[in-house]
Design a protein that fits this description.
By secondary structure, the chain is α/β, with parallel strands linked by helices. It contains 10 helices and 7 strands. The chain binds NADP nicotinamide-adenine-dinucleotide phosphate. The site of NADP nicotinamide-adenine-dinucleotide phosphate has 31 residues, from helix 2, strand 2, strand 5 and helix 7.
């Protein structure tokens, strides 16, 4: 059986890699022997993550400071990678806004759309396109079970996550014959600093059990190549099954919105 890097190649790019899930992907890919390009905005945190990984796994790590909301983000990243072939792409970065849709400016929603849909679309087109030409590669789009239905007080974020799942599934179909595996990882609550900083309360009895970033990442890297998308964690799969196949769509949307209201005391 081929090892991970024999199957996918030498270098991975993780977009949104300074901490949490993104850093966990970086560690897991370095542990599989891949060199890394790590992208995020906070230079110090990103460089510290890069140095730690480089020392721990003896792989090459290139940190690239870039705001993935910027219209020219893709050019900045492409220029920084200096045409280095990217064999494996993880698009993990995301932006969100928790609260009533109209309680923030349109630019907040546009920023979320840029980070969560516009830039991954551009990265898929560019790096995925090159993988298809080379005849091998892998792509992970991080998405969320929040994207399985309309999610009140998280409306734009949830809509962008639905976009990513459906995009990944379509490209899984198109690119598998070209030797490129695409997967959407639909995570539930994951104990990243970003999530914990939102200071969530308890939503309801239906709240799935939280996973660690490492659990989500190992599940995803174990499943890529076999399915177009998956829900990580048994407890998330159970709740997701109820929401999609047992509840009516109206009840699922009400459950999600009521849960958000309670969790964030809205
Ligand atoms: N945590 C959860 O409970 C959960 C649940 C379901 C799905 N997910 C999905 O999992 C992924 C990661 O989730 P997370 O929020 O917990 O984050 P995370 O992986 O812990 O951190 C997000 C990373 O993205 C970077 N990032 C964010 N905005 C960026 C921007 N505009 N430009 C460049 N880098 C940016 C951050 O670094 P800088 O701040 O340094 O830029 C950070 O390294 C997201 O796609 C999210 O939708 C998470």
């Amino acid at each position: 059986m081929m090892t991970f890097n024999e199957k996918y190649g030498k270098t991975a790019l993780v977009a949104g890699a300074s901490e949490g899930l993104g850093a966990a992907y970086a560690h897991a890919l370095a542990a599989r022997g891949l060199d890394l390009v790590l992208v995020a905005r906070r230079r110090q945190l990103l460089e510290d993550t890069a140095v730690r990984i480089q020392q721990q796994y003896r792989v090459n790590v290139l940190p690239v400071v870039c705001d993935l909301a910027a219209p020219d983000a893709i050019s900045v990243v492409v220029e920084a990678t200096d045409n280095k072939p990217i064999d494996f792409l993880v698009y993990n970065a995301a932006s969100s806004w928790i609260g009533p849709f109209l309680a923030t400016g349109l630019e907040t929603h546009q920023n979320i759309a840029a980070v969560n849909t516009g830039t991954p679309l551009a990265m898929l087109y560019y790096y995925g396109g090159k993988m298809v030409v080379r005849g091998r590669g892998g792509v992970v789009l991080m998405t969320s079970i929040a994207g399985f239905q309309g999610s009140g007080f998280l409306a734009t974020y949830a809509a962008t996550k639905a976009f990513c799942r459906v995009l990944a599934e379509g490209l899984w179909y198109e690119w598998r014959a070209a030797g490129v595996d695409v997967i959407a990882c639909c995570a539930g609550v994951t104990t990243t600093p970003n999530y914990l900083n939102t200071n969530p309360g308890r939503a309801s009895w239906l709240e799935p059990r939280a996973q660690s970033p490492e659990q989500v990442v190992e599940e995803c890297l174990g499943r890529i190549g076999s399915v177009p998308s998956f829900v990580s964690g048994r407890s998330n799969r159970f709740v997701s099954f109820l929401m999609q196949h047992v509840f009516s769509r109206k009840k699922a949307i009400l459950t999600m919105g009521n849960g958000m209201k309670k969790m964030y005391r809205l």
